[in-house]
Amino acid sequence: MPTLEHSLGTTDFERAGPTQQRPLVLFHTLLADRSVYDGIFPLLAKSRDVIRFQFPGFGDSRGRCESIDDYASWTISFLKALALPCPVDVFSNGFGGFVSVGVVSRAPELINKLIIANSGAAFPDERKPPLLKMAELVETKGIESVLETAISRMFPEEFASANPEIVQQRKEALSKTNPQQFALACRALEKLDYRALAKGISKPVHIVAGLNDATTPPAMSQELHKIIQGSEYSEIDDCGHCPQIQQPQKILQLLS
Questions:
Q1: Distance of alpha carbon 184 from its chain centroid, rounded?
Q2: DSSP character for 87?
Q3: What predicted TM-score, i.e. pTM, was given to this entire model?
Q4: Strand ranges inside the chain, DSSP E
Q5: What CATH number did the domain enclosing 222 receive?
Q6: pLDDT digits (tens, 9 = 90+) for 156-212
Q7: Is 136 contained in some domain?
Q8: Which of these, 24, 151, 191, 212, is most buried using a 10 Å CB contact count?
Q9: What distances in angstroms separate CA 254 from CA 96, 137, 155, one per listed residue?
Q10: Kind of pairing, strands 9-16 and 3-6?
Q11: What is the span of the domain harbouring residue 49?
Q12: What is the strand order of the sheet 88-93 is part of?
């Protein structure tokens, strides 16, 4: 896959579809790389100019990112380096959702509209210890030590049991992640509070919550919806953290 050098590092990305259409950029979650979009990427590319990329620590992407602000700055640098002809639409998931809030807040001129699935503005205090525990495990025992935990946070148990091939694919993809950068990202999420920043967002935002999400539960999406004036909010039944895998048709309807 191609890479793009820019002022804050290197971005590993893929682009497909008719370039005369407004670009759609896909931000992935921390629990998966950009392959989390494998099922919908070629379908979207039939009618959209679609770009998916890897955050630092995934694939060949590189950059110094120790906070969500850093990730947002890195992503802004990448989007500017693409030199796209117009503001982009964004679909972001989980970790990518937090980053997208930073991007649209700091560089609104780059964004046309934003769809955020299963994310928020900050983790509540009771949900911060698991983030620190994952960071500590990865730092001391490697990325393999959190693969089972990651799966339990991505998918409801019933879906995981019924789809062992998907589970294995997700484990294999996550196992390639740089452990040091993964740990930094976990700690960045634990420290994050974008509630004040998000109040200033004026671009169209649609917030989507999977009702069975064990990582960023609906209450976090609901809080973000209340913070961003004029935002839309919808829910997806029978869906965990990654609707593009568990409920792809509903995401395609949103994005097509």
A1: 16
A2: P
A3: 0.97
A4: 3-6, 9-16, 23-27, 49-53, 88-93, 111-117, 205-210, 232-236
A5: 3.40.50.1820
A6: 999 999 999 999 999 999 999 999 999 999 999 999 999 999 999 999 999 999 999
A7: no
A8: 24
A9: 17, 37, 21
A10: antiparallel
A11: 3-124+194-255
A12: 3-6, 9-16, 49-53, 23-27, 88-93, 111-117, 205-210, 232-236
